[in-house]
């Protein structure tokens, strides 16, 4: 009786680059055991495959139509091509971190996924070779992203005053982001269905349905104190599945539009540049200086992913402690009046922390 061929000897049918992309995305978005990809991740995956297909078609069209012909050398030369010849939407060279953490990462992930399918879409040997491709090293010829710096409160104060006049909803979204140490997407994605309005007599408990670190076993919790509730109550929709912050057409404000509006306003009025994501760093500094680094990490969602659910109550208690402190510290200034200092639980607040816009001056409902 003739023996069956070894699994690795089974001939794989030709698979084109676009088909690998489509099947990978479809599987990642329909796997019940892992969180679906966010819009940003999907766009980065599509961009990666677009650039890779464009490169392969210029080298040898057969690479596009049969990915089994692609090896580690193909991927290395593709990365060199990205560094030397490809510009981003701003006409700049792609940063080394983006090439490594997005383009190379997603390319490796898709091939690894293909090798894990049954029947295989990618051979185990091909997956092994591509997985061994090293990240782009540091070089004077490759652009590096500048480290994200902490933003002081003064440019935020100036921007808020202008945003309230032109884009009031965006200003309040920024306040919510600021008060809660949120990522922009977390603030813009607030929905009633994820809020426990009866958490206690003074606070709401918010757990977003989607968040950046869900796939790493982390929970994301926010305690909305007095100031946050005061702002959010103005935007609470009747439909609990709708976002609080909507654009002029009644659609959810996207992170890209949020960033764009704020960037345009800053450039228009010649203000000191900052991006909304930097607000998290300012809050981290304030909490670290006035409480401790552990509370700052937990508040910003950087807690140890190995922490078990039995500690959830303790986590929420710490988050609530930070929320109460920020309500006090930022109540008169959105967020410290020039005459009032924060009163954290412990230790004494830093005297040189910058001040920002008084809450009583922000836009009335």
Your description of this structure?
The chain has 365 residues and is an all-alpha fold. It folds into two domains: 7-131, Orthogonal Bundle (DNA polymerase, domain 1), CATH 1.10.150; 153-361, hpI Integrase, Chain A, CATH 1.10.443. It is built from 14 helices and three strands. It has helices at residues 17-30, 39-59, 61-65, 72-85, 96-116, 124-131, 153-166, 168-180, 184-188, 226-232, 255-268, 278-290, 293-299, 312-330; strands at 195-196, 204-206, 222-224. The protein has a three-stranded antiparallel beta sheet with strand order 1-2-3. Strand 1 (195-196) and strand 2 form a beta hairpin. Helix 8 packs parallel to helix 12 (278-290) and helix 13 crosses helix 14. The longest helix is centred in the first third of the chain and has 21 residues, at 39-59.
Query: Class by helix and strand content?
Result: mainly alpha
In N-to-C order, the SSE pattern is: HHHHHHHHHEEEHHHHH
Q: Could you please say which CATH topology of the largest domain applies here?
A: hpI Integrase, Chain A
The mean pLDDT is 79
The CATH architecture of the largest domain comes to Orthogonal Bundle
Strand content: under 5%
Low-confidence stretches: 1-11, 302-313, 335-365
Approximate helicity band: 40-55%
Rounded radius of gyration (Å): 24 Å
Count of all domains: 2
**Structural shape:** globular
Number of helices: 14
CATH class of the largest domain: Mainly Alpha
What is the straight-line distance between the termini?
83 Å
CATH homologous superfamily grouping of the largest domain: Intergrase catalytic core
Q: Write down how many β-strands occur, each being a DSSP E stretch of 2 or more residues.
A: 3
Biggest beta sheet attributes: 3 strands, antiparallel
> Looking across the biggest beta sheet, what order are the strands in?
1-2-3
């Amino acid at each position: 009786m003739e023996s069956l061929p070894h699994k690795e000897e089974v001939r794989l049918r030709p698979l084109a680059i676009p088909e690998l992309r489509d099947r990978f995305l479809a599987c990642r978005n329909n796997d019940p055991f892992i969180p679906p990809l966010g819009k940003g991740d999907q766009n980065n995956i599509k961009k990666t495959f677009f650039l890779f297909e464009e490169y392969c078609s210029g080298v040898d069209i057969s690479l596009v139509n049969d990915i089994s012909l692609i090896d580690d050398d193909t991927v290395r030369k593709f990365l060199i091509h990205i560094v030397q010849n490809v510009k981003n939407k701003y006409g700049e060279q792609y940063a080394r971190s983006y090439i490594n953490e997005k383009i190379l990462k997603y390319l490796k992930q898709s091939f690894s996924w293909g090798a894990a399918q049954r029947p295989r879409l990618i051979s185990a040997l091909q997956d092994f070779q591509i997985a061994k491709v090293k990240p782009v090293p540091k070089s004077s010829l490759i652009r590096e992203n500048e480290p994200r710096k902490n933003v002081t409160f003064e440019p935020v104060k100036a921007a808020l005053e202008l945003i309230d006049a032109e884009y009031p909803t965006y200003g309040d979204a920024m306040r919510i982001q600021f008060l809660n140490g949120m990522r922009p997407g977390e603030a813009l994605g607030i929905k009633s269905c994820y809020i426990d309005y009866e958490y206690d007599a003074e606070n709401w408990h918010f757990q977003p349905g989607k968040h950046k670190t869900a796939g790493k076993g982390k929970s994301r919790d926010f305690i909305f104190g007095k100031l946050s509730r005061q702002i959010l109550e103005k935007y609470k929709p009747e439909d609990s599945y709708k976002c609080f912050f909507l654009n002029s057409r009644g659609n959810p404000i996207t992170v890209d539009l949020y960033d764009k509006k704020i960037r345009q306003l800053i450039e228009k009025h010649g203000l000191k540049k900052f991006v909304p994501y930097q607000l998290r760093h300012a809050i981290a500094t304030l909490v670290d200086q006035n409480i401790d680094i552990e509370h700052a990490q937990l508040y910003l969602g950087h807690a140890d992913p190995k922490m078990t659910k039995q500690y959830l109550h303790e986590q929420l208690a710490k988050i609530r402690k930070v929320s109460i402190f920020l309500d006090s510290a930022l109540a008169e200034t959105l967020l410290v009046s020039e005459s009032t200092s924060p009163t954290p639980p412990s230790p004494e607040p830093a005297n040189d922390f910058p001040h920002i816009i008084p809450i009583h001056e922000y836009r009335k409902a």
